[in-house]
Amino acid sequence: MARVLWVVIGVASLAMLAVPTVALPSDSRGLLRRFVTPEIVPALRISQTFQMTGRGLRAVEFQPTAIGPVSGVVRIELHDVTAHDDTLLQAVDVRAADLVRTQRYQFDFPPIANSSARTYQLDLTSPESSPAHGIAVWATKGTRYSGGTMLIDGEPRWADLAFRAEAPAPSTWDLLRRTDALTRDVVFAAGGVAWLALGLVVRALTTASQGTAGR
């Protein structure tokens, strides 16, 4: 039994190398507290702030939904609002009908190299020249995501949009592959020694336990 446990720990440790090293900002659509925001129109701005946890922010995904006959255009913007500044980084106008072709829409843009630890704001509104109709987005009541909040015309709400930030999230193994050979050798050697030492400890404890039980 002890040997099996030792092997399982070793396999689990290797599997952990494939786990991403950062958790990217996101909030899924809730089951009980989910709701649909007000309709996106030119006079209304629906926003979600989030604090980025990794480098290379390259997209933000959200979940639009039709609440009636869909028409017009939705304007999607990404702002850098770190330290209460407001810098418009990206903006695009998308046909409302294109937004609701699938359950999720991904707003792609060129990767932002130094995005880590900065605060961003996703804005959804509509231009006066081609106002949107019949479209809203999914959100969830509460504060499940602690790194930001949903806003309506700049006013914070007790809710978050269903969203997900996209960026490279390298695993420990990916990071090791980018280092020099000496560093990789040292890390793997240390891991191997620790695993063998654990095996000796488990064996010693098992032997002691068996000796006690035999008395």
What's a quick, concise take on this entry?
The protein is of the alpha+beta class and 215 residues long. It has helices spanning 2-16, 96-99, 172-178, 181-214; strands at 26-27, 34-36, 46-51, 57-62, 64-71, 73-80, 87-95, 105-112, 119-125, 133-141, 150-152, 155-156, 159-161, 163-166.
Q: Notable features of this structure?
A:
four-stranded antiparallel beta sheet, single chain, Jelly Rolls, six-stranded antiparallel beta sheet, 36% strand, 2 domains, elongated, 14 strands, alpha+beta, 215 residues, 28% helix
Segments where pLDDT lies below 50 for 5+ residues?
none
Helical run tally: 4
% residues in beta strands: 35-45%
The number of E-state strands comes to: 14
Which class of the largest domain in CATH terms? Mainly Beta
Quote the CATH topology of the largest domain.
Jelly Rolls
Model description:
This protein is of the alpha+beta class. The two termini are 21 Å apart. Strand 6 and strand 7 form a beta hairpin. The chain has 2 domains: 55 residues; 141 residues, Jelly Rolls, CATH 2.60.120. The chain has a 6-stranded antiparallel sheet with strand order 7-6-9-3-11-12. The chain has a 4-stranded antiparallel sheet with strand order 1-14-4-8, with no helix packed on it. It is built from 4 helices and 14 strands.
